[in-house]
Amino acid sequence: MLGFITNKTAAFTTTASTITGTTASTATAAATTTTTTTTTTTTTTTVTSVSKWLNTNSTSFARYRHTASILTNGNVLVAGGYDGSSALNSTELYNPSTGVWTMTGSMRFTRYTHAASLLANGKVLVAGGLSNIGYLNNAELYDPSTGQWIMTGNMSTVRDSPISAILTNGNVLVAGGLAYGAYLNSAELYDASTGNYMIHQPEFGQAWHTSSTLTNGNVLVGAGFNSVGAYLNSVELYDLSTGVWTELANMNVKRYQHTASVLTNGKVLVAGGSGITTALNSAELYDPSTGNWTMTGSMNIGRYYHTASTSTNGNILAVDGRNAIAYLQSAELYE
Question: What positions belong to coiled-coil segments (predicted)?
Fold first, then answer.
């Protein structure tokens, strides 16, 4: 298996005893008395492991521009994508306890560069993207109990490469993306109780960016690509209570088609993506308590259009994608 091992520190303590022969002799007719003093020396050695990524089993099919969602049972659902010649509707499940992939029910539509969100009822919502028939505004629901997909309400517009985030009220925020080549600054909310979308407060126009729901319920949106052809490292925050977007500190690296994952400590891990000249393997962490970004261990392979999922044990599973050489059929774990 390939997983990221964080800098873990272990302390080893060694205790040594030294006997010093301090002898006091009393010359009497009866006996000679000798006193021995023992000195104990304690040495503590601190060992810090080197950060690295570890491989895990490959998916059944090479794919990129797909989505990955952590189900309530801990399995990872990978859906759709592109294999270099065609959009896919196949889906598969990853079992983190065994590292094994198994096929599950196919979506009704082939799609890639779509959005996916895990709803409070345990179902997975996928929306928009591109298919073999063009741009999509439709949406589907995956039911883990049956392994089947059903159609649900349509978005107000087609969206290629939008972001989506689950809000603490159970609704899903879908924002940005592309529509027939135009960069969208519109956003809409999916009501899981009715299955309908409604228009909401717009964000800045961009695509191939990421979104992460923080522990306080706000949504962090980062990097991407905009209508003037610029690679972005800008970051914005959506305030759930007010519906207002604000700008935050920039990432260290400009990137798009990357991934963002919320760790168990509340920080956000951004990994890979397409850089100005190459596929990136760099990764960085956002700390909501300070508002700052810091670099962390790099992946073994530069990849973009991959997926990243946070498993129940806190590890991050990065799957497939592509680089300048090939469509990837590999996975890595960040521990």
Answer: none
Segment 104-125 mean pLDDT:
97
Q: Which of 141, 175, 207 is the last residue of a domain?
A: 207
Domain that holds residue 124: 56-207
- For residues 213 and 164, give the distance between their C-alpha atoms in angstroms, rounded to a whole number: 10
Closest among 214, 330, 205, 216 to 272, alpha carbons compared: 330
**What CATH number does residue 144 fall under?**
2.120.10.80
Please say which residue of 173, 207, 241 terminates a domain.
207
- 86-101 tens-digit pLDDT: 999 999 999 999 999 9
User: pLDDT tens for residues 199-246?
Assistant: 876 656 777 888 899 999 999 998 888 877 788 999 999 888 888 888
pLDDT, residue 2, reads 36
